[in-house]
Design goal:
Blueprint (H helix, E strand, L loop, with lengths): L1 E8 L9 E4 L9 E11 L1 H7 L2 E10 L4 E8 L11 E4 L12 E5 L3 E3 L6 H5 L2 H14 L12 E5 L4 H12 L3 E5 L3 H9 L4 E3 L5 H6 L6 E6 L3 H11 E9 L10 H5 L3 E4 L4 H5 L6 H14 L7 E5 L4 H11 L7 E5 L3
Parallel strand pairs: 9-10, 9-12, 10-11, 12-13, 13-14, 15-16
Antiparallel strand pairs: 1-2, 1-4, 3-5, 3-7, 3-16, 5-6, 6-8
Helix pairs in contact: 3-4, 3-10
Family: Belongs to the zinc-containing alcohol dehydrogenase family. Quinone oxidoreductase subfamily.
Organism: Gimesia algae
Main location: cytoplasm
Length: 338
C-alpha cells in the first residue's frame, strides 16, 4: 500500500523529512478496524513528532492523526462497525498513523462520519473536536447541555484547529466566548464561527478584558503557547475558576496566585485514553458520534479551510511547513491517493 513515512527526523525543507513509501497492507485483529483512508487532516502534533532529533527508525514511521475513510475489514471482536461503514477518527499516537492507504484503528475511538460532509470536510474534525470537547466538558467540567449558560470562556488561540471547533462547541453550550486572534483574516474567521468578542493575544490581556466590562473570566482554555500567556491568564481567572491547557510548557508555571484564588489548572491530551487503554476509552466513540449528529443537524460546521490533493510526501511537507509558521487558520486537509 502507498504511505508517507520517515526514517530520520529532519527539518521539513529536507526532501527526506517525509517520503513516499510502499508498505504491507495490515490485517485487523481483536477490536481493530481496517480503514481505507480517503482523506487526512494535519495537526501541530504531526510536526512535533516529526521535529528534528538524533533518532533513526529501522522501518518507515507513519504519522497522521486525523482521518476519514471506509471500513474495509474488521477484527473478530468488533461490535460497533462493519465493512462498508464510513468513519472518522483521530487515532492512537502509539500506533502507525493515517498517512497511508489503509490503517488499523481500535473501534472504541472511531465515530460514524457525518453524513452531510464529504471525506475531506470530515477529516478536519476528529482530533480537534475530541480535544475541545474533553477540554471543556471533562477537564473544565462545563455542561454541554447549557447549565453554565452565560458564563465567560476566554480562549487563547481562537483561529487554530482546536479553537475553530472549540468556539462552536462553547456556543452550543451557551457560553459567552472571548477568543483571541491577531490578524484581520483570523479575526474575521473567529467571528464567523460565533465568537462573541475578539481580543489580540499579542497585546496585554487585562485592559482588553476590562474594556468588555469584566474584571475576571469564569474559565480559560489555553490553545496557544502556555508559557507566553500564563501570567496573563492567572491574573484574569476568577477566584475558584479553572484553566485548561493543551500546549506543554517549557518553563515552570508560577502557582502562587493560583493558590490564592483556589483556582484549578488541568491538562487535556486527547491521546490519553488510547495510550493508556483507559476503561472509558469508548467515550471517544460516543463523543465523535455526538459531534456527527450536531454537524448533520446544522449546529456545527467543518473547520477545513484548505483542501489539497493528492495525499503524498510533497503535499504533506508543504502543509507541515505552513503549520510550523504558527499562522494557519482552521484546518488543512489532504484527500485522495495518486
Amino acid at each position: 500500500m502507498k504511505a508517507v513515512g520517515l526514517t530520520r527526523y529532519l527539518p521539513i525543507d529536507n526532501p527526506e523529512s517525509l517520503m513516499d513509501v510502499e508498505l504491507e497492507k495490515p490485517e485487523p485483529g481483536g477490536r481493530d478496524l481496517l480503514v481505507a483512508v480517503k482523506a487526512i487532516g494535519v495537526n501541530p502534533v504531526d510536526t512535533k513528532v516529526r521535529a528534528p532529533k538524533d533518532q533513526v527508525e529501522p522501518e518507515p514511521k507513519v504519522l497522521g492523526w486525523d482521518a476519514a475513510g471506509i471500513v474495509e475489514a474488521v477484527g473478530p471482536e468488533v461490535e460497533l462497525f462493519q465493512p462498508g461503514d464510513e468513519v472518522y477518527y483521530a487515532g492512537d499516537i502509539t500506533r502507525p498513523g493515517c498517512n497511508s492507504e489503509f490503517q488499523l484503528i481500535d473501534e472504541r475511538i472511531v465515530g460514524s462520519k457525518p453524513k452531510s460532509l464529504d471525506f475531506a470536510q470530515a477529516a478536519a474534525i476528529p482530533l480537534t473536536s475530541i480535544t475541545a470537547y474533553e477540554a471543556f466538558f471533562a477537564r473544565l467540567e462545563l455542561d454541554a447541555e447549557g447549565t453554565n449558560r452565560g458564563e465567560t470562556l476566554l480562549m487563547i488561540g481562537g483561529a487554530g484547529g482546536v479553537g475553530s471547533i472549540g468556539i462552536q462547541l462553547a456556543k452550543l453550550a451557551g457560553l459567552t466566548v472571548i477568543a483571541t486572534a491577531s490578524r484581520p483574516e483570523s479575526t474575521e474567521w473567529v467571528k464567523q464561527l460565533g465568537a462573541d468578542h475578539v481580543i489580540n493575544h499579542y497585546e496585554p490581556l487585562r485592559p482588553q478584558i476590562e474594556a468588555l466590562g469584566l474584571k475576571y473570566v469564569d474559565s480559560i482554555a489555553l490553545f496557544n503557547n502556555t508559557d507566553q500567556h500564563w501570567e496573563g491568564v492567572v491574573d484574569l481567572i476568577r477566584p475558584q475558576g479553572k484553566i485548561v491547557s493543551i500546549v506543554e510548557n517549557q518553563k515552570p508555571l508560577a502557582q502562587t496566585m493560583m493558590k490564592t484564588k483556589s483556582a484549578t489548572f488541568v491538562w487535556e491530551f486527547m491521546f490519553t485514553r488510547s495510550m493508556f487503554q483507559t476503561p472509558d476509552m469508548i467515550q471517544q466513540h460516543r463523543l465523535l458520534n455526538r459531534v456527527s449528529k450536531w454537524i448533520d443537524g446544522g449546529q456545527l460546521r467543518s473547520t477545513a479551510n484548505e483542501v489539497l490533493s493528492p495525499i503524498n510526501a510533497a503535499n504533506l511537507r508543504a502543509v507541515h511547513q505552513k503549520l510550523e509558521t504558527g499562522r494557519s487558520i482552521g484546518k488543512i486537509v489532504l484527500q485522495g491517493w495518486d
